[in-house]
Amino acid sequence: MITDALVSLPVFCDTFTHVSLKLEGDVSIERTRRFKGNAFIAYDAMASALVQASTMTKQQVYTLASTAGALAANHWQVAHPSPTLAELYKQEPRWAHVAYEFEAKLRLSLRSTAIGLLGTLRLRLTSRHRPPFREPGAASPC
Predict the structure, then answer these.
(1) Among 13, 90, 103, 132, which residue's CB has the most CB atoms within a 10 Å radius?
(2) Using CA atoms, how far apart are residues 26 and 140, in angstroms rounded to an integer?
(3) Could you tell me if 14 and 69 are in contact, meaning their C-beta atoms sit under 8 angstroms apart?
(4) Residue in 115, 111, 138, 112 with CA at minimum distance from that of residue 53
């Protein structure tokens, strides 16, 4: 789910890298507050939907979503090289394997992260804290 959403939003992925590097730099506290307020409203809604659609806990989903943003920012830039790098990859095809695989790399990275989170941030099963039942074939958050 996360990978599909990110793949469908190329401008968003391209912008990810620039948010913390440039866009959040020299702006007023009020503008930053508005931006962060809106961003966290969307982030919380996405996380809630993922918790409902999967067997992951809120903590696991928040960690996966944060990782998704970081990986999307990096993988997008690598998969969309500058004209100079694209020319270099034509000349040196052995180096081109690092580029052009945005969706596949992101999906693998997020699935691996989700599997790791399920093991490392395991919810203690008590009578009060049971993970939600997930129907067979229910969507994976990745």
Answers:
(1) 13
(2) 38
(3) no
(4) 138
pLDDT band at 83, cuts 50/70/90? Answer: very high
Query: Residues 64-80: pLDDT tens digits?
Result: 999 999 999 999 999 99
What's the Cα-to-Cα distance from 129 to each of 44, 79, 112, 122, rounded to whole Å?
A: 21, 41, 25, 11
> Residue 14 belongs to what H/E stretch?
helix 10-18
- What spatial distance separates the first Cα and last Cα of the chain, rounded to whole Å? 5
CATH 1.10.357.10 is held by the domain 2-120:
yes
Q: What is the pLDDT of residue 19?
A: 82
State pTM to two decimals. 0.75
Number of Cβ within a 10 Å radius of residue 60:
25
pLDDT of residue 132: 47
Looking at residue 2, its amino acid is I
Alpha-carbon dihedral sign for residues 31, 26, 79, 72: negative
